[in-house]
Amino acid sequence: MLKNRIIPCLDVKNGRVVKGINFIDLKDAGDPVEQAKIYSDSGADEICFLDITASNENRETIYEVVEKTSKKCFVPLTVGGGVRSIEDINKLLNCGADKVSINTAAVQNSKVVVDSSKKFGSQCIVVAIDAKQNGKNWEIFTHGGRNNTGIDAIEYAKKMEECGAGELLVTSMDRDGTQVGYDIELMSKISSKVNIPVIASGGVGNLDHLVEGIKLGKASAVLAASIFHYGKHSIKEAKEYLDSKGIPVRI
Amino acid sequence: MNVTIVDYKSGNISSVINSFKEVAQNKVKIEVTSDLNKIKLSDKVVLPGQGSFKSCTDALNRISGLVETINDFAINSKKPILGICVGLQMFADVGYEETETKGLGWIPGKVIKIDNQNGKYKLPHIGWNEINIMKDSKILKDIDDKSHMYFVHSYEFIPNDKNTISATTNYSSNHVCAVEKENIFGTQFHPEKSDKIGLKIIGNFINL
Q: Region B116-130: what's the mean pLDDT?
C-alpha cells in the first residue's frame, strides 16, 4: 500500500537555513546540509528546500547546498524558490535535486511546465500553487504571495496537470505561518479536481493538522516547516501519531 | 572491480551516481560514461532511466553502437546489469508510452500504463510503497519482505514469464517492481532514493 508522505521544508537564504531545528548537538544550526541529514535520518519521506534568497548575486548559493545535500541524503530532494527557466531546472537537477518546484514562472508562462516536463519527465516537475481565498473562490498569488493574479486556483491546478506537472504543492496564503491548520476546503477541492498527487502546505501547528490534511484534505503528502523546527515535534512522533490515526505511513 | 553507470543523456542521473559512490566508497571504481569501450571493459553496468519509455530508448539509439554494446554485455558476456525505473522497463520487447516503441527485448513482455481505475488511483504512483518479495533474488539479499521503497512511475512492466519477477508492489493492483533473469536485474523503484535499505540493494549489486 502506498504510504502518505511527510515532508519537512527548510527555508534557505543565502545558503543558510533561516529557521530550522534547534538541537543542542547540532554543530552548525544554520547548515542546511546538516539539518536535511537529521530529517532524513529521522524518517522524513522527502526533503524540501525553499530558496528565499532575495538578491540575484547570492542565488548561486542554493546550487552548492543542493550538491552537498544530495551526497548525504538518500531520500528525494525537492528544491523550489526563484526557479525561472529550463536552465535553472537543469542546473538544480544536475546538482542532485530530484524534483524542482516552479511557482511564479509557471503562472507567467505555462510553457515552462510543458517544456520542462517533456525534457526532464513529469516525475521531477512540481508546480507550487500559492492561493488565497476571495469570497467563494481561491486566487493565485505570485512573488511569494505579494501579487494577486486573479486566476482561479482550482482551474489553474487542472491546467497545470494538463501541462505535465507530476505533483502540485498547494499552499494556502491565508494559513501560511498561522499554525491554525491547512485550508482543508482548498486542498480537497484541488485534490478532487486533479488526478496527480497533491502536497498540502501552509498552516500546520500541531500533529492533528497533518491528519486533517490527509483525511479531509485528501492530500497524498503533507508539508510542514515550523512544527519540526526547534524540536517541537520530531518526524518520528508525527509518523507514529498518523499511524495511530489509521493513516498509512512508512515507519 | 569497476561499475559503469551508462550516461546516455536522458534524465537526471546525479542521484544514481551519488548513491553508488556512497556505497562503493573507494573500494570499487564507479565510472559514468557512454564510452563503448569503457562499458565493454566494465565488470558491471547500471542502466538508469528517467522520462518516458520512448525518450529513453530514443536516447539510447542516438549513441551509435550503444545498444549493441550493452546487448553484448548482457546477453553474450552475461555480465551483471541493473536497470532502474525506465532502465528496467526497457528490458521489455515493447513499450506503449507516447507511442508503441521497441525495447531491448531481454525479458519478453510489455510496458503499459497502470490502470488508475477511472481516477481512483492518482498517477504517477509517487512515494513509498512496500515490496512483496516473490523469490530469492541476489540483489534483494537481506532485504525484508514488506520493506519500503521509493517509487515514481505511471507505467508498469508485464513480463511474459512470471518466474522473472522477484518482487511486486500493490498500487491499483499488484505490479512488478523487481525482476531477475540470470545476470539481468531491474528495479522499478529507485534504490538510490530509498534511504538505507535502497543503498543496501545497491551494495548487493556491487558485491555480486
A: 95
**What is the model's pTM?**
0.95
Is the CB of A123 inside 8 Å of chain B's CB atoms?
Answer: yes
Contact A140, A157 (CB under 8 A): no
Residue A75: which of B14, B50, B195 has the nearest Cβ? B195
**Is A24 among the domain residues?**
yes
* CATH number of domain containing A59: 3.20.20.70
| pLDDT single digits (tens) A137-189 | 999 998 877 889 999 999 999 999 999 999 999 999 999 888 999 999 999 99
- Report residue B79: phi and psi, to 5°: -90, 155
Which residue of chain B is at minimal alpha-carbon distance from A71? B18
Measure B24 CA to nearest chain A CA, in Å.
Answer: 13
Asked if B32 and B13 count as a contact pair (C-beta separation under 8 A), the reply is: yes
In a domain, A249, yes or no: no
Question: What digits encode the pLDDT tens for the residues B82-91?
Answer: 999 999 999 9
Q: Which residues of B touch A187 (CB under 8 A)?
A: none
Does residue A251 fall inside a structural domain?
no
Give the separation between CA A126 and CA A101, rounded to whole angstroms.
4
Q: What's the rounded Cα separation, in Å, for the pair B140 and A67?
A: 29
Q: Please give the single-letter amino acid code of residue A102.
A: I
Number of structural domains (chain B) is 1
ipTM over 0.85: yes
The answer to whether B139 touches B180, Cβ cutoff 8 Å, is: yes
Give how many domains chain A has, as a whole number: 1
Mean pLDDT of A221-229: 91
Parent domain of A105: 5-244
Angle between helices A207-215 and A184-193 (to 10 degrees): 30
A130 is catalytic: yes
Instruction: With respect to residue A250, please indicate whether it lies within any of the assigned structural domains.
Output: no
B135: containing domain:
2-206
